[in-house]
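Appendix B, example 12.
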Amino acid sequence: MSFDGLFTRAIAAELNQQLANGRIGKISQPYPNEVVLTIRAHRHNFPLLLSAHPSYARIQITQIPFKNPIVPTNFTMSLRKYLEGAKLLNIEQLANDRVLFLNFATRNELGDELPLQLSIEIMGRYSNIILIDQTTQKIIDTIKHIGPGQNRYRTLLPGANYIQPPQQAKINPFNDNDKQYQHLVADYPNREVLAQKLQQVYQGFAKEHALYFADQLHRTDQAMADNWQATLKQVNHPAPSIVKNEDQRQVFFTFLAFPTKNVLHQTATLSEILDLYYQQKANHDRVQQLAGQLISLIRNQLHKNQKKVKKLQQTLVASNHADQYRIKGELLTTYLNQVRRGMTSIELKNYYDNQKMLHITLSPNLTPSKNAQKYFKKYQKLKKAVIFVNEQLAKAQEEIAYLEEIQSEIELAEPEDLPEIKLELQQQGYLKNQKKAKKNKPRQSTSQPTVFYSSDKTKISVGKNNFQNDRLTLKTASKNDIWLHAKNVPGSHVIIHKSDPTQQTLLEAANLAAYFSKSRQSATVPVDYVMVKRIRKPNGARPGFVIYEGQKTLFVTPEPELIKKLAIKPNS
Protein backbone atom coordinates (compact mmCIF):
# COMPACT_ATOMS: atom_id res chain seq x y z
CA MET A 1 0.00 0.00 0.00
CA SER A 2 1.33 3.46 -0.87
CA PHE A 3 -0.38 5.35 2.00
CA ASP A 4 3.03 5.82 3.62
CA GLY A 5 4.44 8.71 5.64
CA LEU A 6 5.16 10.70 2.49
CA PHE A 7 1.61 10.37 1.18
CA THR A 8 0.31 11.19 4.67
CA ARG A 9 2.26 14.46 4.59
CA ALA A 10 0.92 15.27 1.13
CA ILE A 11 -2.72 14.62 2.09
CA ALA A 12 -2.25 16.65 5.30
CA ALA A 13 -1.02 19.62 3.26
CA GLU A 14 -4.00 19.33 0.89
CA LEU A 15 -6.53 19.01 3.71
CA ASN A 16 -5.06 21.98 5.58
CA GLN A 17 -5.64 24.15 2.52
CA GLN A 18 -9.24 22.97 2.14
CA LEU A 19 -10.40 22.58 5.74
CA ALA A 20 -8.39 24.80 8.10
CA ASN A 21 -10.66 27.09 10.18
CA GLY A 22 -13.74 25.15 9.09
CA ARG A 23 -16.42 24.05 11.56
CA ILE A 24 -17.83 20.59 12.09
CA GLY A 25 -21.50 20.12 11.29
CA LYS A 26 -22.66 16.53 10.99
CA ILE A 27 -20.85 13.50 12.39
CA SER A 28 -21.70 9.95 11.34
CA GLN A 29 -20.18 6.49 11.52
CA PRO A 30 -21.40 4.57 8.45
CA TYR A 31 -19.27 1.49 9.17
CA PRO A 32 -17.66 0.08 12.34
CA ASN A 33 -14.16 1.44 11.58
CA GLU A 34 -15.03 4.60 9.64
CA VAL A 35 -16.18 8.08 10.63
CA VAL A 36 -17.35 10.95 8.42
CA LEU A 37 -17.04 14.53 9.71
CA THR A 38 -18.87 17.10 7.61
CA ILE A 39 -16.77 20.28 7.80
CA ARG A 40 -18.05 23.64 6.59
CA ALA A 41 -15.16 25.66 5.12
CA HIS A 42 -14.88 28.28 2.35
CA ARG A 43 -18.69 28.16 1.93
CA HIS A 44 -18.67 24.48 1.11
CA ASN A 45 -19.45 21.30 3.03
CA PHE A 46 -16.61 18.78 2.91
CA PRO A 47 -17.27 15.17 4.04
CA LEU A 48 -13.99 14.19 5.70
CA LEU A 49 -13.60 10.41 5.91
CA LEU A 50 -11.46 8.98 8.73
CA SER A 51 -10.95 5.24 8.28
CA ALA A 52 -9.32 2.83 10.73
CA HIS A 53 -10.11 -0.16 8.51
CA PRO A 54 -7.35 -2.82 8.75
CA SER A 55 -6.86 -2.83 4.97
CA TYR A 56 -8.06 0.62 3.86
CA ALA A 57 -7.11 2.98 6.68
CA ARG A 58 -6.88 6.54 5.36
CA ILE A 59 -8.01 10.16 5.69
CA GLN A 60 -9.57 12.05 2.80
CA ILE A 61 -12.46 14.16 1.60
CA THR A 62 -14.87 11.74 -0.03
CA GLN A 63 -17.66 12.19 -2.54
CA ILE A 64 -18.86 8.59 -2.14
CA PRO A 65 -22.29 8.72 -0.48
CA PHE A 66 -22.47 6.95 2.88
CA LYS A 67 -25.67 5.92 4.62
CA ASN A 68 -25.93 7.22 8.19
CA PRO A 69 -27.00 4.39 10.56
CA ILE A 70 -30.30 4.92 12.35
CA VAL A 71 -28.75 4.06 15.73
CA PRO A 72 -25.44 5.89 16.41
CA THR A 73 -22.54 4.08 18.10
CA ASN A 74 -21.06 5.12 21.44
CA PHE A 75 -18.04 6.55 19.63
CA THR A 76 -20.30 8.61 17.36
CA MET A 77 -22.12 9.97 20.41
CA SER A 78 -18.79 10.95 22.02
CA LEU A 79 -17.68 12.77 18.87
CA ARG A 80 -21.02 14.58 18.60
CA LYS A 81 -20.90 15.61 22.24
CA TYR A 82 -17.42 17.11 22.02
CA LEU A 83 -16.86 18.07 18.37
CA GLU A 84 -20.15 19.30 16.89
CA GLY A 85 -19.63 22.98 16.14
CA ALA A 86 -15.90 22.76 16.92
CA LYS A 87 -13.44 24.72 14.80
CA LEU A 88 -10.69 22.78 13.01
CA LEU A 89 -7.49 24.78 13.58
CA ASN A 90 -5.06 22.66 11.58
CA ILE A 91 -3.84 19.18 10.79
CA GLU A 92 -0.36 18.13 11.96
CA GLN A 93 1.74 15.08 11.15
CA LEU A 94 3.81 13.16 13.71
CA ALA A 95 7.35 13.33 12.25
CA ASN A 96 7.00 11.61 8.84
CA ASP A 97 4.83 8.85 10.27
CA ARG A 98 1.33 7.71 9.28
CA VAL A 99 -0.17 9.61 12.20
CA LEU A 100 -2.15 12.84 11.88
CA PHE A 101 -3.49 15.12 14.62
CA LEU A 102 -6.60 17.18 13.89
CA ASN A 103 -6.55 20.09 16.35
CA PHE A 104 -9.91 21.60 17.35
CA ALA A 105 -11.00 24.64 19.36
CA THR A 106 -14.31 24.39 21.21
CA ARG A 107 -15.87 25.17 24.59
CA ASN A 108 -17.23 22.98 27.37
CA GLU A 109 -20.62 23.24 29.08
CA LEU A 110 -19.35 26.10 31.25
CA GLY A 111 -18.14 28.10 28.28
CA ASP A 112 -14.44 27.54 29.00
CA GLU A 113 -12.06 26.83 26.14
CA LEU A 114 -11.55 23.11 25.54
CA PRO A 115 -8.72 22.23 23.14
CA LEU A 116 -9.36 18.81 21.61
CA GLN A 117 -7.31 16.61 19.34
CA LEU A 118 -8.47 13.83 17.06
CA SER A 119 -5.65 11.45 16.22
CA ILE A 120 -5.89 9.12 13.23
CA GLU A 121 -3.27 6.39 13.11
CA ILE A 122 -2.98 4.75 9.70
CA MET A 123 -1.17 1.55 10.66
CA GLY A 124 -2.85 -1.48 9.08
CA ARG A 125 -4.58 -3.66 11.65
CA TYR A 126 -3.36 -1.33 14.41
CA SER A 127 -5.15 1.66 12.85
CA ASN A 128 -7.25 3.72 15.23
CA ILE A 129 -9.10 7.01 15.70
CA ILE A 130 -8.65 8.61 19.13
CA LEU A 131 -10.32 11.67 20.67
CA ILE A 132 -7.98 13.39 23.16
CA ASP A 133 -8.42 16.19 25.72
CA GLN A 134 -5.27 18.23 25.08
CA THR A 135 -5.43 19.95 28.47
CA THR A 136 -5.06 16.70 30.41
CA GLN A 137 -3.74 14.45 27.61
CA LYS A 138 -6.47 11.98 28.58
CA ILE A 139 -8.30 9.82 26.05
CA ILE A 140 -11.99 10.69 25.78
CA ASP A 141 -12.86 7.77 23.48
CA THR A 142 -11.47 5.61 20.66
CA ILE A 143 -13.06 3.83 17.74
CA LYS A 144 -11.18 0.66 18.78
CA HIS A 145 -10.63 -0.01 22.48
CA ILE A 146 -7.22 -1.55 23.25
CA GLY A 147 -6.87 -2.80 26.82
CA PRO A 148 -3.68 -3.60 28.77
CA GLY A 149 -4.18 -7.28 27.98
CA GLN A 150 -3.72 -6.49 24.30
CA ASN A 151 -0.97 -3.89 24.61
CA ARG A 152 0.89 -3.31 27.89
CA TYR A 153 2.85 -0.31 26.62
CA ARG A 154 -0.08 1.57 25.14
CA THR A 155 -3.60 1.32 26.55
CA LEU A 156 -6.22 3.00 24.37
CA LEU A 157 -9.31 3.25 26.56
CA PRO A 158 -11.48 6.18 27.71
CA GLY A 159 -9.80 7.87 30.69
CA ALA A 160 -6.33 6.48 29.99
CA ASN A 161 -3.31 8.74 29.41
CA TYR A 162 -2.65 9.24 25.73
CA ILE A 163 0.73 7.91 24.63
CA GLN A 164 1.94 8.53 21.10
CA PRO A 165 2.82 5.51 18.92
CA PRO A 166 6.42 4.37 19.53
CA GLN A 167 8.95 6.19 17.35
CA GLN A 168 10.95 4.27 14.77
CA ALA A 169 14.73 4.56 14.81
CA LYS A 170 14.70 6.17 11.38
CA ILE A 171 15.51 9.58 9.96
CA ASN A 172 12.78 12.05 9.06
CA PRO A 173 13.68 12.78 5.39
CA PHE A 174 12.59 16.41 5.82
CA ASN A 175 15.13 16.91 8.65
CA ASP A 176 18.14 15.09 7.18
CA ASN A 177 20.90 17.64 7.71
CA ASP A 178 23.62 15.00 7.23
CA LYS A 179 22.34 14.04 3.76
CA GLN A 180 22.54 10.32 4.41
CA TYR A 181 21.11 9.60 0.97
CA GLN A 182 24.43 10.64 -0.60
CA HIS A 183 26.26 7.87 1.27
CA LEU A 184 23.55 5.38 0.33
CA VAL A 185 23.85 6.21 -3.39
CA ALA A 186 27.64 5.81 -3.21
CA ASP A 187 27.43 2.47 -1.36
CA TYR A 188 24.44 0.97 -3.19
CA PRO A 189 24.35 1.90 -6.89
CA ASN A 190 21.77 -0.78 -7.72
CA ARG A 191 18.26 0.73 -8.00
CA GLU A 192 16.35 -1.97 -6.09
CA VAL A 193 18.98 -2.26 -3.34
CA LEU A 194 19.12 1.53 -2.95
CA ALA A 195 15.34 1.64 -2.60
CA GLN A 196 15.48 -1.00 0.15
CA LYS A 197 18.14 0.99 2.01
CA LEU A 198 16.08 4.19 1.71
CA GLN A 199 13.20 2.34 3.37
CA GLN A 200 15.48 1.10 6.16
CA VAL A 201 17.11 4.48 6.87
CA TYR A 202 14.26 6.96 6.28
CA GLN A 203 10.87 7.13 7.92
CA GLY A 204 7.68 6.84 5.84
CA PHE A 205 8.87 5.28 2.54
CA ALA A 206 6.67 2.69 0.84
CA LYS A 207 8.39 0.43 -1.70
CA GLU A 208 6.93 2.23 -4.75
CA HIS A 209 7.96 5.66 -3.47
CA ALA A 210 11.42 4.42 -2.47
CA LEU A 211 11.99 3.19 -6.04
CA TYR A 212 10.90 6.59 -7.38
CA PHE A 213 13.36 8.37 -5.07
CA ALA A 214 16.12 5.95 -6.14
CA ASP A 215 15.47 6.89 -9.79
CA GLN A 216 15.61 10.61 -8.96
CA LEU A 217 18.87 10.22 -7.02
CA HIS A 218 20.45 8.48 -10.02
CA ARG A 219 19.63 11.38 -12.34
CA THR A 220 22.64 13.33 -13.58
CA ASP A 221 20.94 16.41 -15.05
CA GLN A 222 21.42 18.33 -11.78
CA ALA A 223 23.00 17.98 -8.35
CA MET A 224 21.88 15.03 -6.21
CA ALA A 225 20.85 17.32 -3.35
CA ASP A 226 18.67 19.33 -5.72
CA ASN A 227 16.98 16.16 -6.97
CA TRP A 228 16.35 15.03 -3.39
CA GLN A 229 14.81 18.35 -2.35
CA ALA A 230 12.77 18.70 -5.53
CA THR A 231 11.25 15.24 -4.97
CA LEU A 232 10.42 16.00 -1.33
CA LYS A 233 8.74 19.26 -2.36
CA GLN A 234 6.22 17.29 -4.42
CA VAL A 235 4.27 16.74 -1.19
CA ASN A 236 3.17 20.37 -1.51
CA HIS A 237 2.68 20.19 -5.30
CA PRO A 238 1.30 16.67 -5.83
CA ALA A 239 0.43 14.90 -9.07
CA PRO A 240 -2.45 12.68 -7.85
CA SER A 241 -2.56 9.53 -9.97
CA ILE A 242 -3.08 5.79 -10.11
CA VAL A 243 0.00 4.10 -11.50
CA LYS A 244 1.13 0.68 -12.72
CA ASN A 245 4.68 -0.36 -11.90
CA GLU A 246 7.22 -1.46 -14.50
CA ASP A 247 6.09 -5.09 -14.72
CA GLN A 248 2.45 -3.91 -15.13
CA ARG A 249 1.29 -6.15 -12.28
CA GLN A 250 0.80 -3.86 -9.32
CA VAL A 251 -1.48 -0.82 -9.27
CA PHE A 252 -1.10 1.87 -6.60
CA PHE A 253 -2.02 5.49 -5.90
CA THR A 254 0.60 8.19 -5.46
CA PHE A 255 1.27 11.92 -5.17
CA LEU A 256 4.55 11.71 -7.13
CA ALA A 257 4.91 12.57 -10.82
CA PHE A 258 5.56 9.15 -12.33
CA PRO A 259 6.28 8.80 -16.08
CA THR A 260 3.16 9.21 -18.22
CA LYS A 261 3.48 5.67 -19.64
CA ASN A 262 2.83 4.24 -16.17
CA VAL A 263 -0.12 6.49 -15.28
CA LEU A 264 -3.61 4.97 -15.54
CA HIS A 265 -5.69 7.81 -14.04
CA GLN A 266 -5.08 11.38 -12.92
CA THR A 267 -7.25 13.67 -10.79
CA ALA A 268 -7.11 17.21 -9.48
CA THR A 269 -6.79 16.26 -5.80
CA LEU A 270 -5.38 13.44 -3.68
CA SER A 271 -8.81 12.85 -2.15
CA GLU A 272 -10.29 12.27 -5.61
CA ILE A 273 -7.60 9.72 -6.45
CA LEU A 274 -8.32 7.89 -3.18
CA ASP A 275 -12.05 7.83 -4.01
CA LEU A 276 -11.25 6.42 -7.44
CA TYR A 277 -8.88 3.80 -6.04
CA TYR A 278 -10.91 2.64 -3.05
CA GLN A 279 -14.52 2.96 -4.21
CA GLN A 280 -14.86 -0.39 -5.94
CA LYS A 281 -12.13 -2.23 -4.01
CA ALA A 282 -13.22 -1.25 -0.51
CA ASN A 283 -16.91 -1.57 -1.35
CA HIS A 284 -16.43 -5.10 -2.70
CA ASP A 285 -14.50 -6.21 0.38
CA ARG A 286 -17.00 -4.53 2.70
CA VAL A 287 -19.84 -6.45 1.03
CA GLN A 288 -17.84 -9.69 1.28
CA GLN A 289 -17.30 -9.04 4.98
CA LEU A 290 -20.91 -8.10 5.76
CA ALA A 291 -22.29 -10.94 3.62
CA GLY A 292 -19.92 -13.61 4.94
CA GLN A 293 -22.76 -15.76 6.30
CA LEU A 294 -24.76 -15.47 3.07
CA ILE A 295 -21.75 -16.27 0.88
CA SER A 296 -20.94 -19.36 2.96
CA LEU A 297 -24.58 -20.48 2.86
CA ILE A 298 -24.85 -20.09 -0.92
CA ARG A 299 -21.54 -21.87 -1.49
CA ASN A 300 -22.61 -24.83 0.67
CA GLN A 301 -26.05 -25.06 -0.96
CA LEU A 302 -24.49 -24.94 -4.43
CA HIS A 303 -22.04 -27.71 -3.52
CA LYS A 304 -24.88 -29.82 -2.08
CA ASN A 305 -27.05 -29.43 -5.20
CA GLN A 306 -24.16 -30.02 -7.60
CA LYS A 307 -23.43 -33.32 -5.83
CA LYS A 308 -27.12 -34.18 -6.01
CA VAL A 309 -27.19 -33.52 -9.78
CA LYS A 310 -24.16 -35.74 -10.27
CA LYS A 311 -25.77 -38.64 -8.39
CA LEU A 312 -29.08 -38.23 -10.21
CA GLN A 313 -27.31 -38.25 -13.56
CA GLN A 314 -25.53 -41.48 -12.57
CA THR A 315 -28.92 -42.97 -11.64
CA LEU A 316 -30.27 -41.98 -15.06
CA VAL A 317 -27.37 -43.70 -16.80
CA ALA A 318 -28.10 -46.86 -14.81
CA SER A 319 -31.80 -46.54 -15.68
CA ASN A 320 -30.97 -46.67 -19.37
CA HIS A 321 -30.70 -50.46 -18.93
CA ALA A 322 -34.36 -50.74 -17.88
CA ASP A 323 -35.38 -52.05 -21.32
CA GLN A 324 -33.01 -55.00 -20.83
CA TYR A 325 -35.20 -56.21 -17.94
CA ARG A 326 -38.37 -55.89 -20.06
CA ILE A 327 -36.79 -57.83 -22.92
CA LYS A 328 -35.65 -60.62 -20.59
CA GLY A 329 -39.15 -60.85 -19.09
CA GLU A 330 -40.75 -61.06 -22.54
CA LEU A 331 -38.27 -63.73 -23.74
CA LEU A 332 -38.92 -65.84 -20.65
CA THR A 333 -42.68 -65.53 -21.22
CA THR A 334 -42.31 -66.46 -24.92
CA TYR A 335 -40.07 -69.48 -24.25
CA LEU A 336 -41.68 -70.47 -20.95
CA ASN A 337 -41.81 -74.14 -22.01
CA GLN A 338 -37.98 -74.24 -22.17
CA VAL A 339 -37.52 -72.94 -18.63
CA ARG A 340 -37.38 -75.42 -15.74
CA ARG A 341 -37.64 -74.74 -12.02
CA GLY A 342 -34.24 -75.00 -10.34
CA MET A 343 -32.32 -73.58 -13.32
CA THR A 344 -29.82 -70.78 -12.43
CA SER A 345 -29.59 -69.40 -15.97
CA ILE A 346 -30.66 -69.96 -19.56
CA GLU A 347 -29.72 -68.71 -23.03
CA LEU A 348 -32.56 -67.75 -25.34
CA LYS A 349 -32.78 -66.32 -28.86
CA ASN A 350 -33.34 -62.53 -28.69
CA TYR A 351 -35.75 -61.65 -31.50
CA TYR A 352 -35.12 -57.95 -30.72
CA ASP A 353 -31.45 -58.40 -31.75
CA ASN A 354 -31.31 -60.61 -34.86
CA GLN A 355 -31.87 -63.84 -32.91
CA LYS A 356 -28.61 -63.49 -31.00
CA MET A 357 -28.39 -65.66 -27.91
CA LEU A 358 -29.07 -63.70 -24.68
CA HIS A 359 -27.87 -64.99 -21.30
CA ILE A 360 -30.59 -64.64 -18.60
CA THR A 361 -29.92 -65.24 -14.90
CA LEU A 362 -32.69 -67.13 -13.03
CA SER A 363 -33.62 -67.67 -9.38
CA PRO A 364 -33.69 -71.47 -8.86
CA ASN A 365 -36.33 -71.21 -6.10
CA LEU A 366 -38.85 -69.46 -8.38
CA THR A 367 -41.12 -70.93 -11.03
CA PRO A 368 -40.47 -69.96 -14.67
CA SER A 369 -43.49 -67.62 -14.55
CA LYS A 370 -42.29 -65.94 -11.33
CA ASN A 371 -38.83 -65.40 -12.87
CA ALA A 372 -40.43 -63.60 -15.81
CA GLN A 373 -42.57 -61.51 -13.44
CA LYS A 374 -39.42 -60.61 -11.44
CA TYR A 375 -37.85 -59.02 -14.54
CA PHE A 376 -41.06 -57.15 -15.38
CA LYS A 377 -41.19 -55.74 -11.81
CA LYS A 378 -37.57 -54.54 -12.09
CA TYR A 379 -38.46 -52.87 -15.38
CA GLN A 380 -41.51 -51.09 -13.92
CA LYS A 381 -39.53 -49.97 -10.85
CA LEU A 382 -36.75 -48.45 -12.97
CA LYS A 383 -39.27 -46.86 -15.33
CA LYS A 384 -40.96 -45.09 -12.41
CA ALA A 385 -37.54 -44.15 -11.02
CA VAL A 386 -36.62 -42.43 -14.29
CA ILE A 387 -39.68 -40.19 -14.04
CA PHE A 388 -38.88 -39.35 -10.40
CA VAL A 389 -35.17 -38.81 -11.10
CA ASN A 390 -35.93 -36.46 -14.00
CA GLU A 391 -38.25 -34.44 -11.77
CA GLN A 392 -35.60 -34.23 -9.03
CA LEU A 393 -32.91 -33.38 -11.57
CA ALA A 394 -34.99 -30.49 -12.95
CA LYS A 395 -35.58 -29.17 -9.41
CA ALA A 396 -31.90 -29.41 -8.51
CA GLN A 397 -30.82 -27.64 -11.71
CA GLU A 398 -33.43 -24.93 -11.14
CA GLU A 399 -32.13 -24.46 -7.59
CA ILE A 400 -28.53 -24.21 -8.83
CA ALA A 401 -29.60 -21.52 -11.31
CA TYR A 402 -31.35 -19.61 -8.51
CA LEU A 403 -28.38 -19.89 -6.14
CA GLU A 404 -26.01 -18.70 -8.87
CA GLU A 405 -28.34 -15.72 -9.37
CA ILE A 406 -28.09 -14.86 -5.66
CA GLN A 407 -24.32 -15.38 -5.77
CA SER A 408 -24.10 -12.93 -8.67
CA GLU A 409 -26.30 -10.42 -6.79
CA ILE A 410 -23.99 -10.49 -3.76
CA GLU A 411 -20.99 -9.97 -6.03
CA LEU A 412 -22.63 -6.84 -7.51
CA ALA A 413 -24.32 -5.61 -4.32
CA GLU A 414 -23.83 -2.44 -2.35
CA PRO A 415 -23.83 -2.85 1.46
CA GLU A 416 -27.37 -1.41 1.64
CA ASP A 417 -28.63 -4.12 -0.76
CA LEU A 418 -27.70 -7.00 1.57
CA PRO A 419 -30.71 -6.86 3.97
CA GLU A 420 -33.14 -7.53 1.10
CA ILE A 421 -31.01 -10.41 -0.21
CA LYS A 422 -30.99 -11.86 3.31
CA LEU A 423 -34.78 -11.41 3.58
CA GLU A 424 -35.28 -13.21 0.27
CA LEU A 425 -33.19 -16.16 1.46
CA GLN A 426 -35.31 -16.27 4.62
CA GLN A 427 -38.52 -16.28 2.59
CA GLN A 428 -37.17 -19.06 0.35
CA GLY A 429 -36.34 -21.18 3.40
CA TYR A 430 -32.54 -21.05 3.21
CA LEU A 431 -32.25 -18.98 6.39
CA LYS A 432 -34.28 -19.09 9.57
CA ASN A 433 -36.57 -16.12 10.06
CA GLN A 434 -35.36 -13.75 12.74
CA LYS A 435 -37.52 -13.05 15.76
CA LYS A 436 -40.07 -10.32 15.21
CA ALA A 437 -38.61 -6.88 15.74
CA LYS A 438 -39.71 -4.84 18.71
CA LYS A 439 -42.36 -2.24 17.99
CA ASN A 440 -40.06 0.68 18.75
CA LYS A 441 -37.28 -0.59 16.46
CA PRO A 442 -36.99 1.46 13.22
CA ARG A 443 -38.21 -0.36 10.15
CA GLN A 444 -35.65 -1.25 7.48
CA SER A 445 -36.10 1.03 4.47
CA THR A 446 -36.60 -0.48 1.02
CA SER A 447 -33.52 -0.30 -1.19
CA GLN A 448 -33.87 1.37 -4.58
CA PRO A 449 -32.51 0.46 -8.03
CA THR A 450 -29.41 2.33 -9.19
CA VAL A 451 -30.12 5.11 -11.68
CA PHE A 452 -27.97 5.88 -14.74
CA TYR A 453 -28.35 8.32 -17.61
CA SER A 454 -27.60 7.68 -21.29
CA SER A 455 -25.75 10.08 -23.58
CA ASP A 456 -29.04 11.76 -24.52
CA LYS A 457 -30.06 12.06 -20.81
CA THR A 458 -32.56 9.18 -20.90
CA LYS A 459 -33.08 7.66 -17.44
CA ILE A 460 -32.03 4.01 -17.06
CA SER A 461 -32.74 2.00 -13.88
CA VAL A 462 -30.81 -1.11 -12.83
CA GLY A 463 -32.11 -3.57 -10.21
CA LYS A 464 -29.39 -4.96 -7.94
CA ASN A 465 -31.29 -7.83 -6.29
CA ASN A 466 -34.37 -9.94 -7.01
CA PHE A 467 -36.74 -7.81 -4.93
CA GLN A 468 -35.54 -4.68 -6.73
CA ASN A 469 -35.86 -6.48 -10.08
CA ASP A 470 -39.47 -7.47 -9.37
CA ARG A 471 -40.47 -4.00 -8.18
CA LEU A 472 -38.70 -2.31 -11.06
CA THR A 473 -40.05 -4.51 -13.86
CA LEU A 474 -43.53 -5.38 -12.57
CA LYS A 475 -44.52 -2.23 -10.64
CA THR A 476 -42.36 0.80 -11.42
CA ALA A 477 -41.75 0.52 -15.17
CA SER A 478 -44.34 1.66 -17.71
CA LYS A 479 -45.71 -0.94 -20.11
CA ASN A 480 -43.98 0.70 -23.08
CA ASP A 481 -40.58 1.06 -21.40
CA ILE A 482 -37.75 -1.13 -22.69
CA TRP A 483 -36.57 -4.07 -20.54
CA LEU A 484 -33.07 -5.58 -20.94
CA HIS A 485 -31.29 -8.58 -19.44
CA ALA A 486 -28.09 -10.49 -20.21
CA LYS A 487 -29.10 -13.61 -22.13
CA ASN A 488 -29.23 -16.94 -20.24
CA VAL A 489 -27.10 -15.81 -17.26
CA PRO A 490 -27.87 -14.34 -13.82
CA GLY A 491 -28.02 -10.57 -13.91
CA SER A 492 -29.89 -7.35 -13.23
CA HIS A 493 -33.15 -6.21 -14.80
CA VAL A 494 -32.47 -2.97 -16.70
CA ILE A 495 -35.22 -0.54 -17.67
CA ILE A 496 -34.94 2.27 -20.22
CA HIS A 497 -37.67 4.72 -19.21
CA LYS A 498 -38.62 5.49 -22.78
CA SER A 499 -40.63 3.65 -25.43
CA ASP A 500 -38.48 4.63 -28.44
CA PRO A 501 -34.86 5.00 -27.27
CA THR A 502 -32.08 5.81 -29.71
CA GLN A 503 -29.70 3.07 -30.82
CA GLN A 504 -26.98 4.70 -28.72
CA THR A 505 -29.18 4.55 -25.61
CA LEU A 506 -30.03 0.90 -26.35
CA LEU A 507 -26.33 0.04 -26.61
CA GLU A 508 -25.51 1.89 -23.39
CA ALA A 509 -28.34 0.16 -21.51
CA ALA A 510 -27.20 -3.18 -22.94
CA ASN A 511 -23.74 -2.40 -21.61
CA LEU A 512 -25.26 -1.88 -18.16
CA ALA A 513 -27.14 -5.20 -18.42
CA ALA A 514 -23.93 -6.99 -19.43
CA TYR A 515 -21.84 -5.31 -16.74
CA PHE A 516 -24.35 -6.09 -13.96
CA SER A 517 -24.45 -9.79 -14.82
CA LYS A 518 -22.40 -12.92 -14.34
CA SER A 519 -20.84 -12.27 -17.78
CA ARG A 520 -19.29 -8.92 -16.83
CA GLN A 521 -15.76 -10.26 -17.53
CA SER A 522 -16.69 -11.66 -20.96
CA ALA A 523 -15.55 -10.10 -24.21
CA THR A 524 -18.95 -10.32 -25.93
CA VAL A 525 -22.25 -10.59 -24.06
CA PRO A 526 -25.65 -11.18 -25.74
CA VAL A 527 -28.34 -8.96 -24.19
CA ASP A 528 -32.07 -9.45 -24.84
CA TYR A 529 -34.38 -6.44 -24.98
CA VAL A 530 -38.15 -6.19 -25.25
CA MET A 531 -41.02 -3.93 -24.17
CA VAL A 532 -42.10 -4.33 -20.55
CA LYS A 533 -45.63 -5.31 -21.62
CA ARG A 534 -44.21 -8.54 -23.05
CA ILE A 535 -42.78 -9.55 -19.63
CA ARG A 536 -44.77 -11.74 -17.28
CA LYS A 537 -44.11 -13.62 -14.07
CA PRO A 538 -45.40 -17.23 -13.79
CA ASN A 539 -47.51 -18.06 -10.74
CA GLY A 540 -45.37 -19.30 -7.87
CA ALA A 541 -42.09 -18.27 -9.54
CA ARG A 542 -39.17 -17.22 -7.38
CA PRO A 543 -38.36 -13.50 -6.90
CA GLY A 544 -36.72 -11.97 -9.96
CA PHE A 545 -37.82 -14.73 -12.37
CA VAL A 546 -39.80 -13.63 -15.44
CA ILE A 547 -40.49 -14.94 -18.90
CA TYR A 548 -40.81 -12.95 -22.13
CA GLU A 549 -41.33 -13.26 -25.87
CA GLY A 550 -40.68 -11.24 -29.00
CA GLN A 551 -37.25 -10.10 -27.82
CA LYS A 552 -34.35 -8.86 -29.92
CA THR A 553 -30.67 -9.36 -29.03
CA LEU A 554 -27.70 -6.99 -28.93
CA PHE A 555 -24.06 -8.02 -28.49
CA VAL A 556 -21.90 -5.75 -26.36
CA THR A 557 -18.60 -5.72 -24.46
CA PRO A 558 -18.90 -4.48 -20.84
CA GLU A 559 -16.96 -1.22 -20.40
CA PRO A 560 -16.29 -0.11 -16.77
CA GLU A 561 -15.34 3.41 -17.90
CA LEU A 562 -18.64 3.80 -19.74
CA ILE A 563 -20.53 2.65 -16.62
CA LYS A 564 -18.84 5.43 -14.61
CA LYS A 565 -19.87 8.03 -17.20
CA LEU A 566 -23.47 6.81 -17.24
CA ALA A 567 -23.62 7.13 -13.43
CA ILE A 568 -23.11 10.91 -13.62
CA LYS A 569 -26.40 12.79 -13.48
CA PRO A 570 -26.55 15.31 -16.35
CA ASN A 571 -27.29 18.96 -15.77
CA SER A 572 -30.93 19.87 -16.40
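The chain has a mean pLDDT of 89. DSSP finds 14 helices and 22 strands in the chain.
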